[in-house]
């Protein structure tokens, strides 16, 4: 058995290259750290200094993946309650490397290596990770970020460990290869079997000593959710009774995450349930969660492995009232409102959504106020600290939405410019094509924009992506309902003459949605404290150099979708076939230039050639493959489209978002799909 070997970042690569591994290094492992204040719980506290989980967003759902440094070798991952994300990668030599992910720098930090297989990991904190390592024997150990490894006692009766799960309060359980469960006793320093008659567990998860759950099959049935207590043992989990699942995680804050085939549900301790569609994550594996704010999953992002955050958005957190005051504390609060000349009901808190309130001036006044004589020093300090914290958070949220408004304005300008440019390139005029119906797939456009924004603003600027995505996707729904309520799901179909107005409406609705979100946040202590802490601690940051030029990378996305929407208003696809023989008379060829067509053909043993033509020509021009004389799109127009990454066979073949209206020359019969396209003559 070869235990894991702690590595520095510099030594990691060299050790892997040589395949070297030092002997066991057993040390005592310090106990788990206490939990941090829970984001959004409405704790009456000043801004904490400790880091909070980074996977936090405004809106619930699958977020933009972080890629680039993850690679294709990711096998396992586990997130701790303090937000530390531990990863296990396979090495070129067949061993395993354990790393942590730095969210702020978007980098990986190598921590440990082993030539053996890592079967399971359970993150406790930045300082502790439990592992199961399989080599000549399979064992459970605990790793610390300081380079310490402690091998734990074996499971009873020679059982082989298959999964380990741990919580910050010291709770530690294991699952063996036969689906049996074991609990670790710190008093006895050993694992003990936990009876579960008739049950075979697929997985277990502990959030604390009071929250232990698992997925188990009873007599070969599909796995269901179970929970364990010392008093009752393993019993069906009432909140998920009768529901089969693929993954179940318990968190220290009392939250449960539950995965079915396509949906992920987060169940809060207060009974709140939020269900999210996660079917967009391709090749999902290694789900992990440690708080109610977010889960993570590995999946395919293009040709890379990405880690997708799935967030319970701040906007979906349960409503939390302002921290209550005692009568004397309420007197102190009223004194503050009076000192600020606020006479409206509710005092200063009722002014947080007032867009022209002089919050910074009020905060300075509160900071320099002397303690009133009618309340105790302790009550005054408590109220003053709370109001100062609230003012800090409200101003931070307001600043955030000010920046968001600027960015939305830049997007509006870019959208208008790109629409005019693409319309001119396609050859559209309101006079000629005004009544023509055009379709913009708004859902796809906006989701692609969000993904591209994610590449323009990588971590730590994930907030930009979350905010823009929230506003754009909401606007997409509003715009479709207003302009094409009976159209295809996710698509906006309008007359070309109304397209600019409809797209401008989408931006206006985005701005409105952002304003509504801002108001909701600053009027709810749970949401405000979550957002305020995220900003105060640097989890949410905003690039200080954002300009219209910064967003130039979005232009190709807009251009592509606008070309797909506008080309059908001016151009059609003419399909026709011609047989060319080696004998006279010679068949006439189409008039279209090679730049406006693609072809497929077959040749027989007599050298007769049957050619299928796909010609882009003016909408309404004759459906005659030989008699059609155009007009045809200029080579420049088509080249502009192909420069955006469009494959010619997509445009001429009507696929991957391209759908020019099609007309067919007399005698047309579609070729067999196995016949290949001939190269496009650029």
TrEMBL record:
Organism superkingdom: Bacteria
Protein name in the entry: Uncharacterized protein
Instruction: Tell me the lineage of the source organism.
Output: Bacteria, Pseudomonadati, Bacteroidota, Cytophagia, Cytophagales
């Amino acid at each position: 058995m070869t235990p894991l070997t702690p590595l520095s970042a510099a030594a990691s690569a060299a050790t892997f290259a040589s395949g070297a591994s030092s002997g066991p290094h057993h040390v005592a492992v310090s106990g788990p750290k206490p939990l941090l204040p829970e984001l959004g719980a409405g704790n009456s506290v000043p801004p904490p200094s400790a880091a909070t989980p980074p996977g936090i967003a405004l809106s619930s759902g699958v977020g933009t993946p972080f890629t680039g440094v993850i690679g294709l070798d990711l096998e396992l991952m586990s997130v701790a309650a303090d937000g530390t994300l531990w990863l296990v990668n396979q090495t070129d030599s067949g061993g395993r490397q354990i790393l942590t992910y730095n969210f702020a720098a978007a980098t990986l930090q190598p921590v440990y290596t082993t030539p053996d297989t890592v079967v399971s990991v359970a993150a406790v904190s930045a300082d502790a990770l439990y592992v199961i390592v399989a080599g000549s024997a399979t064992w459970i150990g605990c790793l610390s970020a300081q380079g310490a490894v402690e091998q734990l006692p074996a499971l009873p009766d020679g059982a082989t460990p298959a999964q380990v799960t741990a919580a910050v309060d010291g709770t530690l359980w294991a699952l063996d290869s036969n689906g049996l469960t074991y609990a670790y006793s710190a008093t006895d320093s050993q694992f003990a079997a936990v009876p579960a008659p008739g049950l075979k567990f697929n997985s277990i998860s502990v959030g604390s000593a009071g929250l232990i759950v698992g997925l188990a099959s009873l007599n070969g049935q599909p796995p269901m959710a179970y929970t364990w207590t010392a008093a009752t043992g393993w019993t069906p989990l009432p909140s998920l009774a009768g529901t089969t699942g693929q993954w179940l995680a318990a968190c220290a804050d009392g939250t449960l995450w539950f995965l079915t085939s396509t949906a992920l549900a987060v169940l809060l301790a207060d009974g709140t349930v939020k269900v999210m569609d996660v079917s967009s994550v391709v090749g999902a594996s290694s789900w992990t969660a440690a708080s109610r704010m977010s889960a993570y999953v590995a999946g395919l992002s293009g040709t890379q492995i990405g880690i997708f955050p799935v967030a319970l958005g701040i906007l979906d957190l349960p409503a939390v009232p302002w921290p209550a005051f005692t009568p004397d504390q309420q007197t102190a609060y009223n004194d503050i409102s009076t000192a600020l000349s606020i006479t409206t009901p509710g005092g200063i808190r009722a002014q947080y959504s007032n867009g022209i309130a002089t919050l910074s001036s009020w905060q300075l006044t509160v900071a320099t106020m002397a303690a009133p004589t009618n309340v105790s020093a302790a009550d005054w300090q408590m109220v003053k600290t709370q109001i100062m914290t609230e003012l800090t958070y409200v101003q931070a949220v307001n600043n955030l939405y000010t920046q968001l408004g600027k960015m939305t304005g830049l997007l509006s300008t870019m959208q208008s410019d790109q629409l005019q440019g693409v319309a001119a390139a396609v050859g559209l005029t309101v006079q000629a094509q005004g009544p023509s119906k055009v379709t913009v797939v708004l859902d796809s456009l906006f989701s692609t924009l969000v993904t591209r924004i994610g590449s323009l603003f990588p971590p730590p600027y994930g907030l930009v992506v979350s905010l823009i995505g929230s506003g754009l996707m909401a606007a997409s729904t509003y715009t479709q309902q207003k302009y094409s309520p009976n159209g295809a799901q996710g698509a906006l179909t309008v007359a070309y003459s109304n397209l600019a107005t409809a797209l401008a409406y989408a931006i206006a609705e985005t701005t409105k949605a952002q304003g509504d979100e801002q108001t909701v946040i600053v009027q709810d202590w749970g949401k405000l404290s979550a957002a305020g802490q995220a900003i105060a601690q640097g989890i949410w940051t905003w690039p200080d150099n954002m300009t219209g030029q910064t967003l130039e990378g979005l232009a190709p996305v807009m251009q592509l979708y606008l070309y797909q929407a506008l080309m059908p208003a001016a151009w059609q696809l003419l399909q026709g076939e011609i047989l060319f023989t080696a004998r006279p008379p010679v068949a006439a060829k189409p008039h279209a230039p090679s730049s406006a067509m693609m072809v497929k053909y077959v040749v027989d043993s007599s050298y007769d050639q049957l050619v299928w033509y796909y010609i882009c020509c003016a909408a309404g021009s004759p459906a005659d493959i030989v008699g059609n004389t155009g007009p045809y799109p200029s080579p420049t127009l088509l080249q502009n489209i192909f420069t955006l990454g469009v494959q010619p066979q997509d445009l001429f073949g009507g696929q991957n978002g391209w759908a020019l209206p099609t007309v067919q020359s007399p005698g047309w019969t579609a070729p067999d799909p196995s016949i290949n396209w001939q190269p496009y003559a650029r």
